[in-house]
Design a protein that fits this description.
It contains 1 helix and 8 strands. By secondary structure, the protein is mainly beta.
Length: about 170
């Protein structure tokens, strides 16, 4: 009798279960290394940056993304290195959602430049494009380029070009 009840319970469990669906890893965290070219932005020269990336898959190929960069560009006036922090948040559209994922998007960016005598604060917007290539089920490598237009009170419009390579873990 006991075996019959176990078999009946297994039979009910097998036929009442919903079909299995594959899970899509829709969040990521990563690190990137790149170069920011400042075209007269804040009177800075270009510099290498280290970035922290994050993404959240929304739906239908759209991601919400964030990239926070820290850089140490040279100030041509003082000749010293300064600290620059550039957080951004935006959206991107994934043209393909398989192993190779090219994308295009737009970010709202901020740039804070910390000097001994003052702090520069800029707000910018700009397009970006790139791709991610999955080397494992949950690990991707990618390249990204971004062009920003920065504005600040009482200053001319500034711009910068950013190119980076990164690695991300999806979970």
């Amino acid at each position: 009798m006991r075996t019959l009840l176990c078999a009946l319970g297994l039979f009910v469990a097998l036929f009442s279960a919903a079909p299995a669906h594959a899970q899509f890893a829709n969040r990521s965290l990563g690190l990137s290394l790149g170069y920011m070219v400042f075209k007269s932005t804040a009177g800075l020269e270009g510099g290498v940056f280290l970035g922290l990336d994050a993404s959240l898959y929304i739906e239908s190929g759209f991601d919400m993304v964030s990239l926070t960069k820290i850089t140490f560009p040279k100030d041509p006036v003082s000749g010293k290195r300064v600290v620059g922090v550039a957080p951004s948040i935006g959206f991107r559209y994934l043209f393909l959602e398989e192993t190779f994922r090219p994308y295009a998007g737009s970010d709202l960016s901020f740039l804070f430049v910390f000097r001994e005598e003052s702090t520069g604060q800029y707000v910018g917007v700009g397009p970006n494009a790139g791709f991610d290539f999955f080397v494992a089920d949950t690990v991707s490598l990618g390249l990204r380029a971004q062009y920003n237009f920065y504005i600040a009170l009482n200053e001319e419009t500034q711009n910068s070009l950013t190119v980076s390579a990164g690695a991300a873990a999806y979970f």
